[in-house]
User: Fold this.
Amino acid sequence: MLDKLFSSFRKNDTEEEPQSPLPQAVAALLVEAARGDEDYTEKEKSFITHMLSAQFGLDAAEALALREKAETLQAEANDLYSFSRVVKEGLDREEKIKLIEDMWVIALSDDDKAPYEEMIIRRLIGLIHLEDTDSAGARQRAQARLAGV
Assistant:
């Protein structure tokens, strides 16, 4: 009887480990950048899916599922803090700069310079402890990437 009771407290070996919150936080921030101008395009969705696949080594279906989960998380979030905290703790400096560059790619991909998209990126820079110069360099690289597309 006690074995039965205690077994309910033990971890079942067949249960999956919870997924790291880092991919979800990165994905949600990318979605936030895309939705900043209230025009979330198929092009932006495609960019996000490809970025997630490349960064986390996911196949197309896994990256799509992660993006869709992030869309829900972002829509339910009240602010950037929960996502930025995970990113601040989970990425090194170069990875953070790469995230900012990816956000600039998304923000600039529709050829519409929306002030809210820019504000999101600037707020995130401070929250993850980067400098404005990091963002400026990331923006330039993003523009070069888009010119090559």
